[in-house]
Structures are given as structure tokens and as C-alpha cells.
Amino acid sequence: MVKVKIDRKTFRVKEGSTILDVALEEDIAIPTLCHYEEVSPAGNCRLCVVEIVSQKDRPLVCACNTPVEKGMEVLTRSKKVLASRKMAMELLLARAPRSEKILELARQIGVKQPPFRVKEDECVLCGLCVRACREMVGREAIAFVTRGPQREGETPSIQPFPERCIACGTCVYLCPTRYIKMVDLDDTRIIWDKVYKAKEHLISGKFYAPVDLVEYAEKTEGLERSLFLDEASSPLEKRRGQKETS
């Protein structure tokens, strides 16, 4: 255990915890968009910046991927922090001005409209889909594309690799701006513009999950096979049930 100060309050915390871990445990509000507890932190959204006042240059760091240290003193709402968050929020709002998640965060931070031209994209490059696909699913079916011989000067983006995708929908459920789209029909699922055939339940005859997903779950140690073999809990059945009751 180590002692740290956050907003002038002292806490004894587990060594190796991140600043955001401590904040979540102690109900200290730090906004974040690209954080999800089951994937590694990346600090891509820059909303969770805090100021380390115990260091001489008082740097701004991302709370999600900065571990606490003995004697560390942190401010989560200094003028420097709030100015940085505002700028990050303006950039996010310019890319995804219709996203409910972005609009809610903007309201919390006090940003109504970005001061520069909106370049609507919806993908804010938070990287959640990339990390989740790699770390939770183990497929690496999505990647960041930045610079290369044929991409000089182009804006970074994410690129799907449909041949590696098993249509699990993890990226869709985690995408904070709903940029990634998925459509479930009776016997198919469409994601990344690719059509995946669904598997039919042997007893009920209902379609309950993409064939690629079921086969991957059956042969991959660590994935809960029951999630895909139990038609009542499958993504296809859940979504169909929601449609029927709406």
C-alpha cells in the first residue's frame, strides 16, 4: 500500500493501481470515453487527464494508464486540467456531433459547440474496438491505420479485416459513438459489410448465433461455450426479443 493525495485528500491505495482505479474506488469524478475495465488502457480520448503537482514540471497525464506512486499528489480539476479536457472534448464533438455519449460528456464538461469546423466522422479513434477484439476475443480483426507509403497526409482511421471477424458484436456493443453498425436478420448477421450465416438450433429450429462465432467458441479455450449454445442468451435471440416487445 502507498499513500497518495488526490484533490488534497490522502488515500492509502494498492501499489500498481492507476490514478483512475483510485478515482473510481473513491467516487472521484474523472471523465473518460475510451476506458473499459476488461481491456488495457490507452489514453486515446485524453478526457481523463490529471495534473501531477508533486512533480516539478507538473505534467498532465492520463489517469487511466498512469500508476500511482508513493507520495504522489494529483489534482483532477485544476485550471490546467480543465483547459486540456475542454480542448479534447471540442475535438471529439467535432468528429461525432450526434453521438449521445459525446453530447452527454460535452454537457458535463461545459462544451456546447466546437470552435472550429465540424468534420463529422462518428469514429473518434478511441481504440476500444481494436483493443477489445485483440484482448477479449483474440481475433485482431480491427486495426489502426495511420501512415504508410500510400497514406501520407491521410487522417488515421480504423480498418476491419472481415476475414478474421467472427461477428461476435463485441466492437459494436463497446463503440461509444455507435460508429460500428451490425444488423441481425432471421438467419444472418451483417457487420463490416460482410454477411455471416447464423447457426440453427437443433431442437427449436431457431437461429441463435453466427456460425463463425459458434465454431470459434467451441474450439477456443476460455470462451464460455454456453453463451452461444443457449439460444435464450444468444445475441440474435436477445435482439429479436427486443424488437418483438418494442
N/C terminus separation: 50 Å
Sheet with the most strands: spatial strand order: 2-1-5-3-4
Q: From the alpha-carbon coordinates, what is the Rg to the nearest angstrom?
A: 21 Å
Largest sheet data: 5 strands, mixed
- What would the principal axes of the Cα set say about the shape? globular
The run of helices and strands is: EEHEEEHHHEEHEEEEHHH
Helical coverage, percent range: 25-40%
Structure description:
The chain has about 250 residues and is an alpha+beta fold. It folds into two domains: about 1-110, Ubiquitin-like (UB roll) (Roll); about 130-245, no CATH class. It is about 30% helix and about 20% strand. The protein has helices at about 20-25, 80-95, 100-110, 130-135, 170-175, 210-220, 225-230, 235-245, and strands at about 1-5, 10-15, 50, 60, 75, 140-145, 155-160, 180-185, 190, 195-200, 205-210. α2 runs antiparallel to α3 (about 100-110). Mean pLDDT is about 85; it is low at about 225-245.
Please specify the SSE layout and strand pairing.
Elements: E1 2-6, E2 9-13, H1 19-25, E3 49-52, E4 60-62, E5 73-75, H2 79-95, H3 100-109, H4 128-137, E6 142-145, E7 157-160, H5 170-174, E8 182-184, E9 188-191, E10 194-200, E11 207-210, H6 211-219, H7 226-229, H8 235-245
Parallel strand pairs: 1-5
Antiparallel strand pairs: 1-2, 3-4, 3-5, 6-7, 8-9, 9-10, 10-11
Helix pairs in contact: 2-3
